[in-house]
Write a structure and sequence with these properties.
Layout lengths: L12 H8 L3 H9 L6 H14 L6 H8 L4 E6 L5 H4 L1 H17 L2 E6 L8 H5 L5 E4 L6 H8 L4 E4 L9 E5 L1 H15 L4 E5 L9 E2 L2 H5 L4 H15 L10 E3 L5 H14 L5 E4 L2 H14 L8 E3 L5 H6 L3 E3 L2 H13 L9 E4 L2 E3 L18
Length: 367
């Protein structure tokens, strides 16, 4: 059966060049090396391409030729929506995107569940390098990244990986500064809400063994900063309740605060290892009718815009700058062989959610 009449075959690079009376190299340069053509000639090529239905060079064929994908892969061991829901992740993503824009590179998100062991998405990602955003030390997807002969930059965690650049903050020092602020106010009965510490779902108290075996170094260091600060005033870490949540959400913070305060009603300060958990704790306090900070002090870590609006006492870290620096480390690596370690500063932000403990809990004479 004959095909439908008057159906024009799609234009090709060769047919477009013939139509214009120019070389195929000229047509190719209009897309791939526009600086090689005058502005009028490039405009004429692109207009003819539009008129004849030429879609441009095949990106797959081009990547096979050049062995370059023109994109950076962001490994995110969370659901894809997490990158647009969590304010710290969103800020980091914006900074990374700015670096990619500056370099004329694309950005490919490679989201995988922390419960998955299938690393196919990493193996099949068509990228020129990876930025790994805050994964645990034994994460199989991160190990799959290391198996590929591509430059890699880690944001936050894991730490100290041979041959891999890293950008982050001193989480332990940041949390130590915050804890010293609380102990100076007189707090000794402190409870901690933390993000996930290791593989597996644990929504409840984090035992000393689980804390010791934590495979998320950022959480491990933040807990260590709290422990250091409390030890300075003689508080035994064994007496400090730590509740962990697998999901990083406001609802998880509410639930954790409810559980910890129900088990330890004498706690005067909730130290949260993220602003998101702290915002949840503030929500629980409001639900319970607990005045903050008169009856309960709540603190966070990150310094996200939502925390600022809530007046949260927190540790601010430059999340957008982390993303930008991570991108620059990857895209401007050149022939550098030695890995770089970039530690960005943090800042203690004293807001309206921290105050002296209840009168009966104050430890300094004269109160």
């Amino acid at each position: 059966m004959a095909g439908p009449p008057n159906v024009r075959r799609p234009a090709t690079l060769a047919s477009l060049a013939a139509e214009l009376g120019v070389s195929r190299t000229t047509v190719s340069n209009a897309y791939n090396r526009p600086d090689q053509l005058s502005a009028p000639l490039r405009a004429r090529v692109l207009e003819a391409a539009r008129r004849l239905g030429y879609p441009g060079p095949d990106p797959v064929a081009r990547s096979l030729r050049t062995r370059k994908a023109g994109a950076v892969g962001l490994l995110l061991t969370e659901a894809l929506s997490y990158a647009f829901r969590d304010p710290a992740a969103t800020g980091f993503l914006e900074g990374l995107a700015l670096a990619c824009e500056q370099a004329g590179q694309g950005l490919l998100l490679v989201p995988v569940s922390p419960d998955q062991v299938d690393v196919t998405a990493v193996h099949q990602a068509g990228v020129d390098g990876f930025v790994v955003y805050s994964v645990r030390e034994d994460d199989p997807h991160f190990l799959a990244v290391l198996e590929r002969p591509l430059p890699t930059v880690v944001c936050d965690q894991p730490m100290g990986v041979d041959g891999v650049d890293r950008v982050g903050v001193d989480d332990r020092a940041g949390m130590l500064a915050l804890t010293r602020h609380l102990t100076a106010l007189g707090h000794r009965r402190v409870g901690v809400l933390c993000m996930r510490l290791a593989a597996g779902h644990n929504d409840g108290p984090a035992t000393p063994e689980r804390q010791a075996n934590a495979t998320y170094p950022v959480q491990r260091d933040r807990l260590a900063g709290i422990r250091d600060g409390l030890a300075e005033v003689g508080v035994d870490w064994a007496d400090v309740p730590v509740h962990e949540r697998f999901e990083h959400s406001v609802d998880a913070g509410k639930d954790a605060a409810a559980a910890l305060l129900a088990a330890h009603p004498d706690v005067t300060a909730l130290v949260c290892t993220s602003d998101i958990l702290a915002l949840g704790a503030l929500g629980h306090a409001a639900h319970r009718g607990l005045a903050v900070p008169d009856q309960l002090t709540v603190t966070g870590f990150d310094g996200v815009p939502e925390a600022e609006r809530a007046g949260l006492t927190t540790v601010r870290q430059p999340v957008l700058e982390k993303g930008r620096v991570a991108g620059e480390l990857l895209l401007e690596r050149g022939d550098r062989n030695r890995p770089r370690r970039v530690t960005l500063p943090t800042e203690l932000i004293v807001g309206s959610t921290s105050g002296r403990p209840r009168v009966e809990e104050r430890f300094f004479s004269g109160w």
